[in-house]
Prior knowledge:
By secondary structure, this protein is an all-alpha fold. The protein is about 55% helix and about 0% strand. The protein contains 3 helices and no strands. The termini are far apart.
Amino acid sequence: MKDDYKDIIDLPYNGVKQHRRMSMYERAAQLSPFAALTGHNDMLDDTARTKEEADRENDMPKDFEEWYAVLMQMTEQESLDADNEPSA
């Protein structure tokens, strides 16, 4: 199998004579409709935005008791911070 193309491997290639050579712009235009990742970044952005929203919702207290506990912790922290401030 190694020698299958031995007789033609070193022949010069002069290109196709019937067709003119395609410019890089024309070649890109021909292949662009088949871009596999079209819209991929938009989908990633939507997924990230949805995840951020879900994370924010999960961080929020669900009922009154949880809200009350959060407020009490904040109040206690503020009073501790006020007690630890040096007096002028």
